[in-house]
Amino acid sequence: MDYSGKVVVITGASSGIGKESALEFAKLHASVVLVSRDMNKLEEVAKELSKYQTQILVCMCDVSQKDQVNQMNKKVLEKFGTIDVLVNNAGFGIYGNFNDLKVEEIESQMGTNYLGMVYCTKIFLPKMLEQKSGHIVNVASVAASFGIPGMVSYCASKFAMLGFSESLYHELKGSGVGITVVSPIMVRTNFFNHNSFNKMPRYTTALSANTVAKAVVRAASSPRLEIVVPQFVRIAIWFKQTFPYLINPIVGGIFRRSRANQKF
Ligand SMILES: NC(=O)c1ccc[n+]([C@@H]2O[C@H](COP(=O)([O-])OP(=O)(O)OC[C@H]3O[C@@H](n4cnc5c(N)ncnc54)[C@H](OP(=O)(O)O)[C@@H]3O)[C@@H](O)[C@H]2O)c1
Q1: Model pLDDT for residues 79-123, shown as the tens digit of each residue
Q2: Using a 6 Å cutoff on CB, does residue 183 contact ligand 1?
Q3: Does the Cβ of 208 fall within 6 Å of ligand 1?
Q4: 16-39 per-position pLDDT tens digit
Q5: Fewer Cβ within 10 Å of end Cβ, the chain: N or C?
Q6: Structural domain for 228, as ranges
């Protein structure tokens, strides 16, 4: 797909997968809109992108706040008059047993990971439908398909994102607008800098943010509902969905054992 001059809005572009996705789209000469809550970090990313000689717009916006999302939409349409790709990537997780989480921590994960994606999609979709083209990429997780102990509210937000996307995928058929979910396993990013992850068992397999960013670029022109990264993990999801009574206890057992072996 030729992204030259296409307008790509990326939420959570100040770090990790979002930042790497911005770099990948800029290399393809897309016009990139960088969205996050931290203007300084966004400006640093914009500086890195400037070597690709493409148009960049920096928008400070907390996606969990509807009014800020509305302002961001206005800025994008004022500057470019259009949107071709929306990457709903902003998100975070808090590790801990449900019983120990504050209600506010659960609300904030849902507010950013799920509702933030809903607000951005709601505000940009009409333009895409009007022009009969565009693509929404939702960065979910393999945690959208497996309930992981210690990640109750994070998993709920990602299951919600996948369910939302599946419904919208069917609604959008024939409209010219597509939607694809990117579901990675663990990725080496600042995601795990949240203090709560000090208590999480360390798993050795982790992807680079750039590997996921390349999948995000592929997703932006894909007819598929979901791209799992790496691809072979789709087999595990298929097994879980096909034989839930067999696989759920095995998965639960693996996570329980690794948590029991963890020295806090
Ligand atoms: N790392 C993993 O193992 C992993 C695995 C599967 C899926 N994911 C998903 O990948 C996405 C990106 O995470 P990452 O791993 O790249 O983590 P990261 O490096 O911590 O990046 C998260 C990004 O989200 C932004 N953000 C957080 N809350 C926001 C809000 N309310 N409004 C706007 N921006 C917000 C952050 O920017 P500011 O702080 O500057 O606002 C940052 O740019 C998340 O949705 C995450 O759930 C991550």
Answers
A1: 999 999 999 999 999 999 999 999 999 999 999 999 999 999 999
A2: no
A3: no
A4: 999 999 999 999 999 999 999 999
A5: C
A6: 7-260
Q: Which of 154, 169, 203, 245 is catalytic?
A: 154
The answer, as to whether pTM is greater than 0.70, is yes
Residue 172 located in a structural domain:
yes
The domain that holds 131 is classified in CATH as 3.40.50.720
For ligand 1, whether the C-beta of 89 sits within 6 Å is yes
Distance 246 CA to ligand 1 centre (A): 32
Task: Give domain status of residue 1, yes or no.
Answer: no
Pick from 28, 29, 8: nearest CA to 18: 8
119 classed as catalytic: no
CA-to-CA separations, 73 to 57, 66, 77, 164, in angstroms, rounded? 12, 11, 6, 21
The verdict on residue 2 lying in a domain is: no
Task: For tokens 């990640």, name the residue.
Answer: 151
Number of folded domains that form the chain: 1
Beta carbon of 31 within 6 Å of any ligand 1 atom: no
Q: How many Cα atoms are found within 13 Å in the side-chain-facing hemisphere of 66?
A: 3
